[in-house]
Write a structure and sequence with these properties.
It is a single chain. The chain has about 170 residues and is mostly helical. It has one domain. It contains 9 helices and no strands. The relative contact order is 0.15. It holds the Pfam family FA_hydroxylase.
Length: about 170
């Protein structure tokens, strides 16, 4: 049982780390489809790809899940059940944190548990959808402060790249 829980936790922690710093923050700086699609009211990469005839948008949707999938081969050897549990919890958390009904409120007891465990609630995730410079860390809220720093570094890099005079060969 310990290996199942540990494996699920590792999948969530590692997936959220790579997803936040390798996909999500860079997607806000250099990407196109994350902000256009995921931060729109519809939030469906499939719907966007079909409606706008831009199948390339599906790649961005896949890249959002890839940080969790990339650890399956390594973690499977620890516990296949733990991997499946971690993937299920990750997907359920995606569904839960996107509860954006104006009157939705996470019950106080669950808010307290999430605060203690550093887990992102729908209210916190909604802050990110309202202001893309805040509240990073899809599952774990404690990734937020280092993600803001990473965002500032990538924005500085983007500005520097724009100022650089590129010579064509």
């Amino acid at each position: 049982m310990v290996s199942i829980v540990l494996t699920a936790f590792l999948l969530l922690l590692l997936g959220d780390f790579v997803g936040t710093f390798g996909y999500h923050v860079p997607g806000h700086v250099f990407g196109k489809f994350h902000a256009i699609v995921h931060h729109s009211p519809n939030r469906s990469f499939i719907r966007y790809a079909i409606h706008h005839r831009r199948p390339i948008a599906l790649i961005d949707g896949f890249l959002g899940a890839f940080p969790y999938l990339m650890f399956i081969p390594w973690l499977w050897s620890l516990s296949p059940v733990g991997v499946l549990l971690g993937l299920a919890v990750a997907e359920l958390h995606v569904i839960w944190r996107h509860q954006f009904a104006l009157d939705y409120q996470t019950p106080p007891a669950i808010q307290q548990i999430c605060r203690v465990c550093g887990i992102t609630t729908p209210e916190r995730h909604w802050q990110h959808h309202r202001d893309a410079r805040k509240a990073y860390g899809d599952i774990f809220a404690f990734f937020g402060p280092p993600a803001r720093w990473w965002l500032s570094q990538l924005m500085a890099l983007k500005r520097a790249l724009r100022r650089r005079p590129w010579k064509r060969v």
